[in-house]
Amino acid sequence: MKDGLNSLIRTYSDYLKRKYQRKIFRVGLSTGIPCPHRIQHGGCIFCHQETFTGEYQTRGLTVAQQLEEAIPRILDTCGDVGLIAYFQDETSTAGSLDFLREQYQAALAHPEILGLIVSTRPDYIEQPVIDLLKSLPVPVTVEIGLQTIHNASLQFLNRGHDFAQADEAIRRCGENDLETGVHLIIGIPGESREDIKDTIRYVSGNPCISQVKFHNLVAYKNTPLAKMVRNSNLNILDIDQYIEILGDILPLLRSDIVITRLFTSNIRRSQIALGNYSGSKPEWLNRLQLYLLANNIHQGKNIL
Ligand code: SF4
């Protein structure tokens, strides 16, 4: 049923199929450099490294070795698909320029790889890195952790950057013709519905942003967030509450913006400290679709 979402929102799978004229799969890769924000400042309060690091990425493998392990598995499972290298864990632009060039070029050296995505923080995407990404011979997307436009929330999350830095990083990437996406967290304690809508209005009003990745805030075990939720009775959205908020904000999202994710990825129950996540991701997507249809909601509906 989730393919029916294509008529209600701009889905990533549909966008990729149109762009590359075939089915596309992203291969998660790691540069091997741990996130400097976690090393130097304790990291974001929700960050749980194991939730975004693939098993084959944790063994100190080179990029070429990671691809050698991952690609046969993907082709076995998914058949004839095109592949994009996705440096998604930690902060994928941390490291010297020479080191980063080596990592990205190692990925692009594989004949199956058609494009590159790097995921990073707003304070790790300076002009030299942008110039490096621009010089690569494949389509490149930069994903930036914006999360929210509200500085109080960014402080609460211990993001270690403010909104102005994120806005500047997005502008720099967009003006350098890099496809630019943002990660957003929905359900940050203390944010009102209007606060969330303000973030969506900013995204819709920023011509440099062409993709958005939604995350519902999850309290993973052994994170500062889990302790805070337990000690202070902070509310963490369950899936139905989250779907209802998506229904409220999707009409405010510019209709050409590609939604690259709708739910936090890889929610493994064994890693969750608390919260109700009954069902599976395909079920949640079905629930979202039914909710949007029942309430006559589609992306961009309320943008004049
Ligand atoms: S920037 Fe990303 S990897 Fe680094 S601490 Fe925050 S969530 Fe974790």
Written description of the protein model:
The protein has one domain (2-294): TIM Barrel. Helices cover 38% and strands 17% of the residues. Helix 10 (239-249) crosses helix 11 (281-294). The model has no long low-confidence stretch (mean pLDDT 93). Helix 5 (127-134) links the parallel strand 3 and strand 4. The protein is globular and about 45 Å long. It is α/β, with parallel strands linked by helices and 304 residues long. The protein contains 11 helices and 9 strands. Residues 35, 37-38, 43-44, 47, 90-91, 121, 145 line the site of iron/sulfur cluster.
Compact summary:
This protein is of the alpha/beta class and 304 residues long.
Helical content band: 25-40%
- End-to-end distance: 29 Å
CATH architecture: Alpha-Beta Barrel
Number of helices: 11
Give average pLDDT, whole number: 93
- The gross shape turns out to be globular
CATH class: Alpha Beta
Write the CATH fold name.
TIM Barrel
Percent of sequence in beta strands: 15-25%
Strand order of the main beta sheet, please?
A: 1-2-3-4-5-6-8
Cα-based radius of gyration, to the nearest Å:
19 Å
Low-pLDDT runs of 5+ residues are none
Structural class: alpha/beta
